[in-house]
Amino acid sequence: MLRIVLAAIPIVAMTFAIPIVNRVEPRLFGLPFLLCWLIAWIVLTPAALWAIGRLERRW
User: Looking at the whole model, is its pTM more than 0.90?
Assistant: First the structure.
């Protein structure tokens, strides 16, 4: 059950949080905030899945 919840975090962050973070300002690295948000989660998703794999191997 824990691995399903952990795997759902990036999906929720990239789909359902869009109305909350949908803004141009502030700009990060010259990019709109929404684009930085999506890029960050695209980069963080493999790290989250790696952590899930580590947890699964321990149990």
Answer: no
Assign 59 a pLDDT band (cuts: 50, 70, 90).
Answer: low
Residue 27's contacts (CB-CB under 8 Å, 6 or more residues apart) are: 33
Cα 44 to Cα 23: distance, rounded to the nearest angstrom: 21
Query: What would the DSSP string read from start to end of 1-59?
Result: -HHHHHHHHHHHHHHTTHHHH--SPSPBTTB-HHHHHHHHHHHHHHHHHHHHHHHHHH-
Q: Would you kindly state where each structural domain of the chain is located, as residue ranges?
A: 2-58
